[in-house]
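Hey, I'm writing a tutorial for new members on how sequence and structure tokens pair up, and I'd like a real worked example in the thread rather than a made-up one. If someone can provide the structure for the chain below, I'll link this post from the tutorial.
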Amino acid sequence: MKKILLSICMAACGLTAMAKDYTDKLIVTINDVSTPEQETTIGVEINEDNNLDISLLNFTLDAGGGNFMYVGHIYVNDVELTEGADYDSFSVSQTIRIPEGDNDSLQWIGPLLQDVPIEMTGKISDNKFYCTINIEMVMLGQTIHVVFGTDDFPSAVLSAKADDPDKLVDVYTILGTKAKSQVRKSQALEGLPRGIYIVDGKKVTKK
């Protein structure tokens, strides 16, 4: 995954870091009470070490009844990935500082919390991001448990039919553009320039 993200970065942005936003549902649980689902965007950027910088901006807790707790920007940086066949995974523990959010008129509590221990685990593919975050608010005596997205990534187990060289497949570029439609799997990369492609849902490199 890191190699794929780096390839996109080099191709699209030269030496500029590659960033991508993932939008999905987010649920927060405090003291065994969960907030309603809310659509949220998490930003992911590859850094100079080819690890990930992850950001959850303007993090706000819905306490119900029209009451909100404004936390701030959550940044988890330099996250190392474990590469897999269909997706990459990560697990990181850090102590962070939470700056205030973008709206100066709101009372953001993040800066008041000082050092905040945080644990984050998750999975990432080119079009999907899932993570759980445990935020220890020591000064408030609370642990905030955050779930973003759904852990329904495909299995890496392939059937015999999936390995059939005569199977008809679609071929996509790493950016999601269809390069070929319903071609034999054994001929999927013929005539295409060097690069990384998605063939039958799998990442394939043509050298």
